Amino acid sequence: GNAGRVPEKTKTRRKALAKTRKKPLATTLDKALSSRNLRYLDCQERHQAQETLSSYTSSQLRSIVIALQGKEICYGNKMYAISSLTKKGIVDYIMSTTWEPAHFLRSALGQDKPGITFAKGEVTSALRFERKFWTASGGRKRKIPWWPKDGSREMETLMEAFESVVHFVQPEGGTGIHLGNGKILTCAHVVSVDKDDEGQDPLNGSQRIGRKKLVMFPSGKILAAECVFAMETEDGQFDCATLELQNPAKEIYPSTSELENKETYKDLSAKHRCFCVGNPSNIDLESAESGNNDFEPRVWHLSNGMTHGNSQNADLKGCVHSCWTYWGHSGAPIFSDSGKIIGLHSSWDPDTGARLCVELECIREFLNSQPKSS
Fold first, then answer.
1. Which residues contact 151 (CB under 8 A, 6 or more apart)?
2. pTM score of the predicted model
């Protein structure tokens, strides 16, 4: 009667193996960045986060790193295979590349209250062109003369724009904007990993697709996002990427922003009032000595200026704007005075100090060329 029958234990084992084989990599990576695995980011104290991470298995820790960086990481200024690091080494790496940036962003949100500064229109003044170079004005913050009154419909629109700006939770900073339906727009070069060589980034953007990042909204909420489309050119005319927020079914999406649709903004050679909300980053990349910057506010930083036409540098295309920006502003939206997106801050010209943004029509072309499945 039992001849030829497969024992129940064997059946169970085969089913488990089949499920393991069929499981796509994306599903595994999604679990790696689940809220359960990312709970260490909610720890306010360093020792608490370290203890939480130390309670994870080595496999859990590696899955988090692989999801965000791949199997090769930069640790102590050297490249290593993640498999070669000890558990303590992996914990240290995760702390420095995710918990520390997240802790800085959240602490600055609570202490600096950038939302209040934004509502008041207290701003870092526009750059000035003097002696053939764009320089920061410096001095105390001032209020934007044309800023709408608190409580007005115009102010509600601007606050919606502010609340749709995200900061990337990574040491090098980076900024993006939520367009709605869980779609984040940023610069392609923000979607980087340790193994990317300086000056040798993939120019077609395809290698950035599938990479995952952590982003924070002004509420302090951190969500995982995956790059689904990217387009970049060597001259900087296109430097765009879209990411989709993970686990969308259980999340209530925060505020959204949209592209400016007024015909006048198609011609950025004309001067238009604009403002920028970005993440300066707390790392001073312009100093050989270690130390942090002390911008005010340090996060969701408001600056204003004007558009000044196309770049005159043949090797660096884009629209020149005079909003003050710093390293972590890459991917920050340049807004019109009505709170609509007219550009995406992407780079600067080291010869003139000019800040450059991807033009509105290039952003529109990028979004229209994105596959519908993305």
1. none
2. 0.88
**Which residue's structure tokens are 């312009």?**
286
Nearest 5°: CA angle at 187, between 210 and 255?
90
Q: Give, for all 374 residues of the chain, the pLDDT tens digit.
A: 433 333 444 444 434 333 333 344 454 567 899 989 999 999 999 999 999 999 999 999 999 999 999 999 998 889 999 999 999 999 999 999 999 999 999 999 999 999 999 999 999 889 999 989 999 876 667 899 999 998 999 999 999 999 999 999 999 899 999 999 899 999 999 999 998 865 555 556 788 999 999 999 999 999 999 999 999 998 989 999 999 998 654 556 667 899 998 887 777 677 899 999 999 876 655 544 444 556 889 999 999 999 998 888 888 899 999 999 998 999 999 999 999 999 999 999 999 999 999 999 999 999 999 887 65
Residue type, 47: H
Q: Which residues pair with 356 in a beta bridge?
A: 320, 347
